[in-house]
Amino acid sequence: MIEFKNVSKIYPSGVKGLDDVNLTVNDGDFLCIIGLSGAGKSTLLRSINKMHTIQSGNIIVNDEDISKAKGKKLRLIRRNIGMIFQSFNLVNRSSVYKNVLAGRVGYHSTFSTLFGIYSRDEKMLALQSLDKLGILDKAFIRADQLSGGQQQRVALARALTQEPKIILADEPVASLDPVTTISVMDDFAKINREFGITIVANMHHVDLAMKYANRIIGIKSGKIVFDGTPDEITDEVLFNIYGRALKHSEKLGEVDDAN
Amino acid sequence: MDKLLNYLRIKNTVSCTTPDEAYAKRPMLWIYNIIIVFAFLAVIIYFSVDVSFMNGINFNGTRLGELWKGMCNPNWSYFFGYGEYRFSESVIYQIIETFSIAFIGTLISSILAIPFGFFASKRMVGKWSVISELLLIVIRTFPEILFGLIMVKVVGFGSFAGVAVLSVHSIGMIGKMYSEQLDVVDNQPLEALDACGASFLTRVKLGVVPQVAPNFLSVILYRFDLNVRTASLLGLVGAGGIGYYIWVYSSFGTWSMLTPLLLGVVILIVFVDIISSILRKKLL
Amino acid sequence: MQTKNKGVLRRIFHKLKYKKVIVSLNDNGTPSKIIEKKRSLWPRYFLIVAAIFGCCFIFVELPAKIRFDQISVIFGQMFTPSEFSLKTWDRYNEYIFATAIPAIWSTVEMVFIGTTIGTAIAIPLFLIASRNIVLKWYIYQPVRIVVDIIRTIPTYVLAILCTVFFGIGNTAGIWAIAIFTMGIMFKLMYEYIDTCNMNPFEASMSTGATRFKAARVALYPQVKPMFFSNFLYTFEINVRASVILGFVGAGGIGQLLSNAMDAQQYDKVGAILIPLFVVVVVLQLLSSFLRRKSL
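^ Those are the sequences you sent over. The predicted structure of the assembly is below.
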């Protein structure tokens, strides 16, 4: 469970990143954050695992206050949170297998990471994660030789290998084509359903958010302006968040089943 | 080939259907890494024994103490050239002398290397470039100190020998870099000039020179940097420059004279580094 | 009075800096439009360079007599056995294989050991000195400055200092190469690490790794090929520079060369140079081939 209590962040330039945010995310939720670029989506997401620090308030993740945690305590909390990035953030020269195993370094000492020693169970776990996402046959290929959708799946497998309770996704489908976007989002939904992992994702596309999420947060200038289920979203809400009505061409719409 | 790589667990090229199968067929490169590391260590140990490394180290602790004492009171009159030492014997004079040797040598060789570089570039002369390339390689690989000794016999002791060595030796390096630059010249301006009827010389002057001039200059600067070090090195064999006195004073163990010399060398090299980075920024 | 002087001076400088260019003419031949163009800078730079060139000759004395005949004497004697030392072709060839080549091989061995030791010392240092791994400037900046100062000391000075401490012989030469190598590998590697892609590093940190573990997982695969390439490059430079070591008594082929030159036995010099030349060229080709393959 994630709780934000009166969280505020101000950048050194004076810009307000987050403005008195109060939020509760329950276990098993699929939460999507929507809003304009620069409204505070990334700041909100990244402060959950303290990649961005906050100035005031508390963030409680799984009954631990992460905003005050440092050093080893912070690393222990972060172990249980997986993160997916827009540019996949894989080690390009390494194989997919090694990339996925890299998710386990939080559970190892410096010595065994130095020599790349992982236990048999962890290796099986990595291969099973790859299998669940359907890319097992690409397990020993160099990571940069895969397509964008496959690379994002590898990143997802890496996050799964951590055995996390929460997965954060910072615009995971922004650099993918529409067809791949749908299949990757389906994978996210499958993980959410089958393993009960809480998913918090930043999205550009409102209709994607509405299709997959069971809860949506709208952010504008660091403040939460909408917090509810997809059914409650009306055009008026979107007008509030984006400042104007969305045109039809700006929605993802229906995707034909190509090849 | 692939089957062998799979068998030796170097690479996996078959696609596996279950995680268990993938686990059984995974590449295990760590075995080979360990073998390579052990082979490397064995080679190092064999080499060390062969050249009797660490046999009879006479690590002289007392000498370290003497060095430290000498380092703390350097002989400033030697450094600046007042008192019992004339200016022409001082460290500062030697620094300027070393700088001059490098300057003159680099300048002369940068001009002399132009025809060599031109004839070593495949773009310009085609297959005949091999002759000049070989010549440049021979000039480059000849050890500078040896050349220094020879020049000392030809022109006598003193700084001119150093100038002669640098002038000839740098032709090798600068000529090679010239030929590399000329090989990647952009053809389009040359074609345009040809189309409006320019002669060969005009094409070179207006088409080639503006393209390669900044690169040539940066090559010359880089070489000047290195030549300052080589010029001080040549002093060892008596070809002028600061190396000679470093050799002398360190073998006698007069540390108070050695420290100003070392300081002088460091100052000279730092000075040349700074100047060449300023000039390089201006060039670009 | 003073303003007039200023005006004159200013006008002179202006004239030196700019020149008038006639752009178009009227019908009767008088210029109708004149623009001022900055004069080309090249003559100025040329004058500066020529001035420095002239000044240098204050410090460098021209020789009284140049004995060109010596050149032909020396080079002529290098490749034929002379009466003064090796008297026959047999002995010349024997010298190449029995003395010169083993000496060159032991120099290569020394250089290999020295390069390895220097690289081993450099590894922890360049890890500390890269801005991407260590964030606090008061840790990485001092390390960079100290090693930079060590790097300005020329190789031969290092060799001389090492003979002071370790005695004359191979050990001094190996340590000199080690220190020199440390300087080069240090600079090459930390500059490369600073330009590495930090995305996977960030991802690794978010899974709960320390900076060191994240560097090992995310940066090491990128750095590894560059590391070996730089090692080969440094090895090649060191082999070329190793001739100097012998001249100051730190072991290696320079010793043989120096003895032969002092005794004016130029045929021995030639006999040493031929295999040395072959070794250096072969190493250069090998290293550029291997470096191209790994990158």
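The mean pLDDT of chain C is 84. Residues 86 and 92 of chain C are 6 Å apart (CA to CA).

Shout if you want it in another format.
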